[in-house]
Design goal:
Layout (H helix, E strand, L loop, with lengths): L1 H18 L16 H15 L8 H12 L2 H8 L2 H12 L1
Length: about 100
């Protein structure tokens, strides 16, 4: 176990020093290194930022919210109104 830890430290010590130190900011020199993972990470972060929607409620979410709110009232509607009135109201609404 100790030998594995030392091998890890030898292999990844440079990566930890270069990329994972706290308090450092990435500058323009970060993209000049031949390590392509920095560029890939930058593009993935930029894509995630662009995918953020500042509006919480959009049309599909609002439709699901309305359906989930009105769905419990359907059995009550069938209990209170006769079926021929329900069919009549439905026909008026669609035609």
């Amino acid at each position: 176990m100790v030998g594995g830890q030392r091998a890890w430290e030898r292999t990844y010590a440079g990566v930890v020093k270069r990329w994972l130190l706290q308090g450092r900011q990435a500058g323009s020199d970060a993209l000049e290194v031949p390590d392509f993972s920095a560029t890939t990470d930058l593009y993935s972060v930029a894509a995630n930022v662009r995918a953020i929607n500042p509006f919480v409620l959009n049309l599909p979410v609002m439709a699901m919210l309305v359906v989930a709110t009105l769905l419990p009232y359907v059995p009550l509607l069938f209990a209170v109104l006769p079926i021929d009135e329900i069919v009549g109201y439905t026909m008026k609404a669609f035609f």
